[in-house]
Amino acid sequence: MATTSTGLDGARPRGGRLPRRERRVQLLESALEVFVEHGYHAAAMDEIADRAGVSKPVLYQHFPGKLELYLALLDAACDAVIANCHAALESTHDNKLRVGAAMGAFYDYVGRDTGAFRLVFESDLTNEPAVRQHVERVTTECAAMIADVIREDTGLPDPAARLLAVSLVGMAQVSARYWLAEAGGLDREQAVALVSGLAWRGIRGYPLTD
Q1: Do 174 and 152 touch, CB atoms closer than 8 A?
Q2: Same domain membership, residue 79 and residue 40
Q3: Residue 108's CB: how many other CB atoms inside 10 A?
Q4: For residue 94, how far is the Cα from the chain centroid?
Q5: Cβ(123)–Cβ(60) under 8 Å?
Q6: Is the domain of 81 the same as that of 36?
Q7: Which of 35-39, 185-189, 198-202, 206-210 has the lowest mean pLDDT?
Q8: 49 and 124 fall within a common domain
Q9: Are 38 and 88 found together in one domain?
Q10: What is the CATH number of the domain that holds 97?
Q11: Which of 7-21, 31-45, 54-68, 145-159 is least confident?
Q12: Which of 6, 77, 121, 140 counts the most CB atoms within 10 A of its CB?
């Protein structure tokens, strides 16, 4: 498979026309790089176009503005986190392993080289209602899936199960971000084992229901 090379300044070389879908993917990849590097407010559409190797009018043909481009990236990033959490919960029926898999899903996502997690967990645009709604969707939907498991296994009422689930999601994403930024010397497996062990010691204290 051919790969797209970049110039010495990081910009992709300008070339021929691409099918619309491929061009959109290229623009999103370039936009992700710029938003992760600079944040929303400091990112410029000119730089995104240059990074993609296209003219600014071409960029605007696909995305009418910077916010729409950011929301498209944020939507894909949120979908990825939620899908990873769902896959982790479905990977086993052993609840101890489920806790480890769910924690691992967040650590895997945060550890990706793209830095896409910053759009979800460290956005500098959470005062924008559409962005805040996307970001909150990650916690809401991941917690809802985890709450279903807790409720089925423990018989706890829905409000209690949801509170525990939100707490687990918060533990996963905050600790994963800290691990990436500060916890030098701990590899991914060690970090996940520590945090999932802490979570399991807490959640297993609730007795299983018949």
Answers
A1: no
A2: no
A3: 14
A4: 25
A5: no
A6: no
A7: 206-210
A8: no
A9: no
A10: 1.10.357.10
A11: 7-21
A12: 77
